[in-house]
Design brief:
The complex is a heterodimer of chains A (240) and B (114).
Chain A (H helix, E strand, L loop, with lengths): L5 H10 L1 H21 L8 H16 L3 H13 L1 H7 L1 H6 L1 H6 L1 H25 L4 H7 L6 H11 L3 H25 L5 H23 L1 H28 L2
Chain B lengths: L1 H21 L5 H16 L4 H12 L6 H4 L6 H6 L1 H27 L5
Helix pairs in contact in B: 1-2
The chains are: A mainly alpha (240), B mainly alpha (114).
Chain lengths: 240, 114
């Protein structure tokens, strides 16, 4: 009986970045597979499936989130270059964007204020704790902005990151249906609404709709981050 | 391909630097997006290589949110304790924001060319 025991192998692998990285890709593959099997039904969102699988996997294996993230950070890092890459679809849609500039400013303000005020008022009324409410407030912004705002107004940045992702999943799963029901069908309007209310995951969903929707969504995501960074600390001081 | 990945990273780096130097509340990658956009506007078109690299990254945009999403694991106790207010506040405010944004867009743009 030479070599490491099964237990030693497990201890070594559980601490290795390779495990977290591989698990992330496997969970996402499972998510896209399941999503395709269900005919791309929005409720079977690949991010949702992957997150559920990973959280269950971490709970069962006893690996804590920090060791998991040591591997998963390599995927997480690509969010930066991907955000920069949004300039490409945006440039391809430049004429449509220029035509809608005024409407986008008004729509952005409406969406960013509705989201922040809505989530704070609902959270308070339904009895969430103060720290949870403050962590919820910037949830429509893209993750790094939302975390910065949360820190400034007294929320918990890592909790805010989770709320941003949950918001994205909610927007991506229920958004198409809600917008259809609300009579919003133009790719431009659908994309801009998804990007404003549901950020990056909303944008991933908008690209499924069309390149036009994706471009408007990516732009809205960037602008909503900007609006949230300015508006939420201001609303925090004045309103709540 | 490597050349265009380098361009994306350089834009991000320039964005991070700009945000730090000017003390802007905007994250570096968003400023990087603006820089790349200005570059494309000056050049007057998207090079094939860049289109492929950007397309490849954006096709799998969902994957990039999975590590942060799994952060739910670190907050399970709080999420369980306040599940109802959190879920209701997130769902209702997100749907309200979607509709508010979409309606203002539709109202101000008209329904042309859908």
């Amino acid at each position: 009986m030479n070599g490491a025991s099964l237990h030693d192998v497990w201890v070594y692998l559980a601490a290795s970045p390779l495990t977290g990285l591989t698990a992330t890709l496997l969970a996402y593959q499972a998510g896209t597979w399941l999503s395709a099997r269900c005919g791309g039904h929005p409720l079977v969102n690949p991010v949702l499936v992957a997150v559920v699988l990973l959280v269950a996997g971490l709970a069962v294996s006893g690996i804590d989130y920090r060791s998991y993230f040591a591997g998963a950070q390599f995927v997480h890092f690509l969010l930066g270059p991907a955000t920069v890459a949004l300039a490409v679809p945006l440039y391809n849609q430049i004429r449509a964007v220029r035509r809608a500039a005024g409407a986008m400013t008004a729509a952005l303000l409406a969406g960013a204020v509705t989201s922040a005020v809505g989530v704070v008022v609902l959270g308070r009324v339904l009895g969430a704790s103060e720290q949870t409410v403050l962590s919820l407030a910037p949830k429509s912004a893209t993750t790094p902005i939302a975390m910065g705002v949360a820190e400034r107004i007294g929320g918990l940045p890592s909790l805010t990151a989770v709320f941003v992702i949950l918001t994205g999943i909610i927007g991506a799963t229920l958004g198409g249906w809600a917008l259809r029901l609300g009579g919003i069908r133009h790719a431009r309007d659908v994309g801009f609404a998804l990007g404003t209310a549901a950020g990056g995951i909303g944008t991933a969903r908008a690209f499924q709709h069309s390149e036009t929707a994706g471009a408007f969504s990516g732009l809205a995501m960037g602008l909503c981050g900007l609006a949230t960074a300015v508006l939420v600390p201001l609303l925090h001081r004045v309103l709540w | 391909m490597i050349a265009w990945i380098t361009v994306l990273l350089a834009c991000q780096l320039a964005g991070e630097g700009t945000a730090l130097v000017l003390g802007l509340p905007v994250p570096g990658p968003v400023i990087g997006m603006v820089l790349l956009f200005v570059g494309l506007a000056v050049r007057g078109g998207v090079p094939d290589g860049l289109r492929d690299v950007a397309g490849g990254l954006l096709r799998h945009l969902s994957l990039l949110f999975v590590p942060a999403g799994a952060g739910v694991a670190a907050h399970l106790t709080r999420l369980e304790g306040e599940a109802l207010p959190i879920a209701a506040a997130l769902v209702l405010s997100t749907l309200a924001a979607l509709l508010a944004t979409g309606w203002v867009m539709r109202m101000m743009n008209g329904r042309d060319g859908s």
